[in-house]
Request: fold
Amino acid sequence: MRHPQKPPSGMHPLLAERFSPYRFDPSAVVDDHALGLLLEAARWAPSAGNSQPWGFFVGRPGEPEHDRVLPHLAPSSARWATDAGLLVVTLTRRHVDDTQLLYSEFADYDLGQAVAHMTVQAQAMGLAAHQFRAFDLEGLTKELDPNPGWTIVSMVAVGKAVGGPPEGRARRSVAHLRSAPWSPAE
Reply:
């Protein structure tokens, strides 16, 4: 069960204060410097065998890339994501270079690491990131036409949040994290 709670003392403020906003300031711009830092943070994430199997398609309001992504948002995400200063389509390459392997079981995990780094970097810059999957995957894949072996996984809206994190956010307990995967002993 999830209980409203505050992060424990000693947790790094970038992690403790992170939240996924449902409102962004449409006048706040993610400039080239900020975009560069976000992508650098992702670039420096760890990956299996240093494969770095991630890629990003980015678009900011007023850019053609942004206009290509918007029609594919689900109504539930379009209500708030359109106001973000940056939309990032995340992709992973599941093919492993220079091997006979056709699939990397780590590629999605590694992409998650890169997006997590981007999220923490956004927080450090006074921005917020909201990761989501409420979009037309088939339509967006057809629109962007990634190279063979590349797969769109998720999207991230980045921008200046309107408001702060909700008080007493509900999180599962540490005990639950440790016990949920296991069957009770008989």
